[in-house]
Amino acid sequence: MAVTWTEAAVVSRSAATPDIAVIDLAPVAGAAFPAYTAGAHIDVLIGSGLVRQYSLCGPPEQGAYRVAVLNEPASRGGSRAMHALKVGDRLRISAPRNRFPLVTARRHLLFAGGIGITPLLAMVRQLEHERAEYTLHYCARSRARAAFVRELAGDPRVAFHFDDEDPGQPLDLARDLGDPRPDTAVYICGPDGFMDHLLRAAETLGWPQQALHKERFGDPPALAGPAGNGTGAFTVRLASTGAEYLVPEDRSVLDVLLENGVDAPFSCQQGICGTCVVRVLAGDPDHRDDVLTDDERAEGLFTICSSRAFSPVLELDLT
Ligand code: FES
User: Fold this and answer.
1) Predicted TM-score (pTM) of this structure
2) Residue 240: which CATH number?
3) Domain residues for 177?
4) How many CB atoms are located within 10 Å of the residue 4 CB?
5) What's the total number of domains in the chain?
6) Ligand 1: which atom is nearest the Cα of residue 266?
7) pLDDT digit string (tens) for 242-299?
8) What whole-number distance in Å separates Cα of residue 296 and Cα of residue 306?
9) Quick check: CB of 266 below 6 Å from ligand 1?
10) Could you give the CA distance from residue 36 to residue 129 in angstroms, rounded to a whole number?
11) Which pLDDT tens digit goes with each residue over 112-141?
12) Domain assignment present for 223
């Protein structure tokens, strides 16, 4: 159930801004990469065991995978390692997965915060190809530090909102998001503060959850901390074997299963990629992911890397 890794080579590398590297990856063995759809991401295995997710932002038909990586000084090393890559270097990647696809709608409203432009750029190209109606709002601290501005400039369906421009065009959500419309799908991607601001505003304006499609960059909030059952510890029971494992307050279900030799699927370990999703058969889950929809949670889906339990025992289907 582990991720299958494919070797890829860096075939091109350029600087979109002083902080953002655009990296093109091509297959090493000659076989083509799997096709992907707008909004998809790949996992990249960096060095010994560090796994990071990057959205694919290049045109899908080119045969290479293009990612754009922000160099974040506060990161745990992933972005630094990616920025150190040179043409000819090799690394291992997963097949693309898409937890953030375009949906069927008459009108599409897209909101990008900073490096959150990457999946939305692929979406805009796809919508353009389909001659669909869309508007992209692209927010960043400054024009000089925003990637792909040149590619998007001049498109009347793209509005830039740069904090440092005077006169600028600040994002006005009463105007730019507006009241809910049943024919409209909203896509939001960016860092935590941006996401929280947009999602709060959407809720205030009355947008239903089903209309909001989101992908968060960086660590999702509220993944840490004790579970809601008082002690923080709980027991996981696997339906397939009946085996029970104690999950201490400071360990995840995934940690405990792997330590006990259970072959559990995982990738990001941050509750954002969906690789580790299993089904809850009994117990009361305390969801702490940022990937499952309310409907998926109601169906019993659960991320073992980040979520916990309100009940003393959680029974999982890990087949
Ligand atoms: S491993 Fe990515 S959501 Fe759990």
Assistant:
1) 0.79
2) 3.10.20.30
3) 107-217
4) 7
5) 3
6) 1
7) 999 999 988 899 999 998 889 888 888 888 888 899 999 999 999 998 888 888 999 9
8) 16
9) yes
10) 15
11) 999 999 999 999 999 999 999 999 999 999
12) no
